[in-house]
Specification:
67 residues, mainly alpha
Length: 67
């Protein structure tokens, strides 16, 4: 994983952790295994608004919080 992707993945998980949102092994693996900065950027934005970690990957979620 390139440095920028690793840092961004760590940020996604940190936001979820600080918000008290549980992250299971499957979500953690998908986030840390991703090397696409665009996807990780979308997930980071979503990490601030989702109610469950799995919603990071929902294409209907956006940064406004509206489905």
């Amino acid at each position: 994983m390139e440095g920028g992707a690793k840092e961004r993945a760590e940020n996604v998980l940190r936001v979820l952790e600080k918000r008290g949102i549980p992250v299971d092994a499957a979500v953690r693996e998908r986030v840390t295994g991703c090397t696409g900065l665009d996807a990780l950027g979308r997930w980071l934005d979503r990490a601030f608004i989702v109610g469950r970690a799995e919603e990071l990957f929902d294409p209907d979620q956006d940064a406004s919080g509206a489905p």
